[in-house]
Structure formats: structure tokens, C-alpha cells
Amino acid sequence: MEAKVELRMIISADEIHRKIEAMGCQISNDYKDRYPLMVGILKGCFIFAADLLRTLNFHYELDFLGTSSYGNDTASSGIVRLTKDLDVNVEGRHVLLLEDIVDTGLTLHYLCDILQRRNPASLKIAALIEKEIPRNVDLPVEYIGFKTPDIYLAGFGLDWKQLFRGLPYVAEVIEH
Ligand code: IMP
Questions:
Q1: pLDDT tens string for the chain (176 positions)?
Q2: Is 103 a catalytic residue?
Q3: Which residues does ligand 1 sit against, CB inside 6 Å?
Q4: In angstroms, rounded to a whole number, what is the distance separating the alpha carbons of residues 157 and 11?
Q5: Distance 175 CA to ligand 1 centre (A)
Q6: What is the DSSP secondary-structure string of 13-30?
Q7: What is the 154 CA–ligand 1 centroid distance (Å)?
Q8: Domains of the chain and CATH, by start
Q9: What is the reported pTM?
Q10: How many C-beta neighbours within 10 Å does residue 86 have?
């Protein structure tokens, strides 16, 4: 039988846009004159990254990393797979990872580990959302849009079983 799903909005489109503008100002101040490498983490980052990058008032290079740890599940498998590596060399570059949501932190931990070994000048993270849960991993999260409780979210790039990425707001997904 198909699961029934209810979406309960928890962050409005207006709130998201205001927060992204503010984060963009901060990043513009911190990274101007550094010609950083912005790295979007697919797939969930695509709307956050597109909106954030358009607020920046300096030049940067853009690339993407692809990962998979959830499949169609709503809990991390704990095993992170790199599905797309960078096309550029990060050695000596200021790298900012753009992530939709930090949940267990395992994805970012795995990616930071790989990238640190390539000797970037700096490596930091900008995330739209961070779930407030205890984490065993230490992450260089420098910019955070929103903190939420440990609930499953969809919208603004985030999916539930590959659905709802195009919602203009972030909603809690409640399965009945
Ligand atoms: P982590 O490795 O557990 O931190 O999970 C990171 C990735 O899992 C994110 O980039 C998302 O793609 C996905 N994810 C984690 N929590 C959620 C959620 O609540 N909704 C949708 N995707 C999520």
C-alpha cells in the first residue's frame, strides 16, 4: 500500500531568501579577492547554490561533487559513495563546500577528508540547514542558514524519495 505523506511548512520561501542574502553578504566579505572554488554537493544543493551564488559580488570558480548515502531511504546508510569527483585541482585553493543539509555529518566528513588530502589553502562549509543532533564528527561548518530538530525535510532542493525538490519552501515530511 502507498504511504500517505503530509507536508508541513517549517521554513517559508521569504525566510529562506532573507537568510541566503545575509549569508551571501558574509561570504562576499570573507572571500572577496580570494578567487575561491565553490563546490556544490549534488543533488540537494542545486537550488541553495544557485540562489546563494547569485548574491555574491566577487568572482569565483564553480564545480560539483556528487555523493550518495540515502538512496530512496530517509535514514543515512552510513556508507557514503562518491558519484562525481571534482574536475579541477584544489591544491592551494580556497574551497567552500555548498551543502543543502547537515544531518549525521558523514557525507561532509567523508568529502572533507578526501579534499584535505589534496592540500587546499582553506576548506569550509556553507549549509542551508543543520539538524540539531549529536555528531561524532568535527566539521568546518562556517555558515549555517537554519537549525532544525531531527525531522525529515523536503523542498528547496531536498527530496523525499526523489520528490518535492522544487517546493519553494522547506517542509517536514510526515508519513502516515
Ligand atoms: P548526512 O551525511 O547524514 O549529513 O546527510 C547528508 C545528505 O543526506 C544531505 O546532503 C541530503 O542530501 C541528505 N539528507 C539528510 N537529511 C535529509 C532530510 O531531512 N531531507 C532530505 N535529505 C536529507
A1: 566 999 999 999 999 999 999 999 999 999 999 999 999 999 999 999 999 999 999 999 999 999 877 555 666 666 788 999 999 999 999 999 999 999 999 999 999 999 999 999 999 999 999 999 999 899 999 999 999 999 999 999 999 999 999 999 999 999 98
A2: yes
A3: 44, 69-70, 76, 99-107, 152-154, 158-159
A4: 13
A5: 17
A6: HHHHHHHHHHHHHHHHHH
A7: 10
A8: 13-148 (3.40.50.2020)
A9: 0.94
A10: 17
